Amino acid sequence: MRGRELRAVAISLGALFAAGPAAAQIDIADEETTAAEVEKAAGDTSSGAAVDPWEGFNRRSFKVYTFLDDNLLVPVAKGYRAVTPAKGRKGIRAFLANAQSPVVLLNDLLQGEFKRAGETTGRFLINSTIGFLGFADPAARMGIPPHTEDFGQTLAVWGVPSGPYLVLPIFGPSSIRDGVGLGVDLVSDPFFHIDHDWAQKVRYSRFAATAIARREPLIEPLDEIEAKSLDYYASLRSFYLQARKREILNGRSDFDDLIDIDEYEEFDEVE
Amino acid sequence: MSKTMTGWTRRAVIALALAAGILSHSEPAHADEAAEAYVRGVLEEANPILDAADKEARFAGIDALFDKHVDIRRVSMFVLGQYARVMTDEQKKEYVPLFGSYAKLVYRDTLSNYSGQHLEVTNSVDRSPRDIIVNSRIVNAKPGDPLANTVVHWRVYRSDDGKQSLFDAGADGVWLAIEQQSQFKSVIANNGGGVKGIDALIADLKEKVGE
User: Fold this and answer.
1) CA-CA distance, B52 to B49, in Å (whole number)?
2) CA–CA separation, B194 vs B187, rounded Å?
3) What is the pLDDT of residue A200?
4) Does the interface predicted TM-score (ipTM) exceed 0.85?
């Protein structure tokens, strides 16, 4: 426990010194292969036990998620694609991302990422005005690239471990930490605190619009992955955990904790 | 009270030391010229293939590139994770070429997403003298195109005799062989594990590659 506290402090100090957050951990199973491990492997029926102890629950939840995806989200996303030009969709994505700025800014600040907080503020001011309420992204052309943050990432930077992988019925792949983060992001949205019918409508329509606008460009890539997968659930789990790790590191890749290759060296001698 | 203070001070000192450690380690790891040159060569071969307008020609080109540069036996063992050690010789004979065909299908799709794009080596990081990551970027993507900021990674394996081969490819921190390992281990585990589970994996692979 103490070790964890120390890491959190070390990480926040690191951030203060502008070194950025150090490696937040998501344990993508890096097995130590020992004789005992081999023996265990022979009878092991619980695949990624280390990352996914709740696999049984998650697979059921994944079924609900893919059912809703296949029967609701994808058809709507296809309809949306059919009635909008590509440029319009790009504008809508930009608008929704811009509307998310307050939440991104809050998390930039909570992570001590002051430069990125400045970028978020600058982008919001530029795009909301000369960017036609956020439908265009002149800020990117001025050299301020977009980024996202959420409270799940903030918790990671603070040193909170990801906890088990978790599939949520509507939101899909997540983890305990990211699930909690998702809840916090929902309540830290300014619209959440306006107690009016219109605010509620804005909230729900924005949620639906975001889900559709995000799903639309992924129709073909996810179809391809599903078609080639032997186990779509495990594919998405791996993609999620790998991508999430990089997101938490703010786009830097950490190659140190990739699974080693040379474990298989001994096969050279065998053959 | 004073005990707490001492505890806190000690912790702060250790934390500072850790932070200093993080700072000193934030310098980039060593680049590997030879691996960069190797990937540069592969990309030079790949660029005209990705330009091919005809899908069949593109696929044939990707297959040939794959056969030439990927150490398929090594990758095929890696994606089994701990199960590589329980696979029988007989299973191995059937599995290795089957995995090769499957991986080609995946690479055909994945690389076709970069069709018409030209990749250029940017830098490299050595995990060890035998295991090197070479990064590349898309040169001709328009600003604002999501591909413009995509980093495409190549994992190069260098064998004892210095021969280099491609081991894995990834984009923005997401690697294919690592994803395949997650899938394959899951299939094996969910089909009784061990030799029996591997049989199930082989059957699934056969179905995917249409054998």
Assistant:
1) 5
2) 11
3) 86
4) no
